[in-house]
Design a protein that fits this description.
By secondary structure, this protein is α/β, with parallel strands linked by helices. The chain is built from six helices and seven strands.
Length: 189
């Protein structure tokens, strides 16, 4: 199935999604990689507000390249999501709804996704220019000293993504290979 979603999202918006579905995401998406996530945790530990609202938010694990003249953003391919595993459950428990990146997640993240009715979506690795084409506006909102890892507020339109972890516990990294092997067995049988 294919779904169109606009941020901020609710649990009800995400409930129908299943691992393997495609999503065209529009609205605001924040960027943050591991250095920014570490600073987010430091703010939370100090009782300080975060630089953007978490409720219903989407965070894209990306460090975009510098934009060329006439571009909103440079190449914007995903980074490996496992680097955010130590931070993600806390952010999900505080209201984040969508994580965007690539690669497998640990069990604590999977549990937090189900507990919070959230999702983990994969962006196309190696297709940073394609992903950048969905970005309509960009604003650096904090930690400019982090360079490409500064937190950015992106306005996106029909950002193409695939559901990897759904709110029901589905995991495409588990169900995808199993379905493929079943299809091979059916062809041989």
């Amino acid at each position: 199935m294919q779904y169109k979603l606009t941020t901020p999202v609710t649990r009800e918006d995400l409930a129908p999604l299943r691992a393997g579905d495609t999503v065209l995401l529009s609205g605001v998406v924040y960027t943050a990689r591991d250095a920014a996530h570490k600073r987010l945790m430091e703010r939370l530990d100090a009782g300080e507000p975060l630089p953007f609202p978490l409720e219903g938010s989407a965070i894209y694990y990306v460090g975009p390249t510098p934009e060329k003249p006439g571009q909103v953003i440079g190449s914007a391919g995903p980074t490996t999501s496992g680097r955010m595993d130590a931070y993600s459950p806390r952010l999900l428990d505080l209201g984040q709804s969508i994580m965007i990146g690539k690669g497998k997640r640990n069990q604590a993240v999977k549990d937090a996704v189900v507990r919070n009715g959230a999702v983990y979506l994969a962006a196309l690795g190696g297709a940073g220019a394609l992903m950048a084409g969905s970005v309509k506006e960009l604003e650096v909102i904090c930690w400019e000293d982090l360079g490409c890892e500064a937190v950015r507020r992106l306005e996106v339109k029909d950002f193409p993504l695939t559901v990897i972890l759904d709110s029901q516990g589905g995991d495409l990294y588990e169900s995808g290979p199993a379905a493929y092997l079943d299809s091979l067995a059916a062809k041989e049988g």
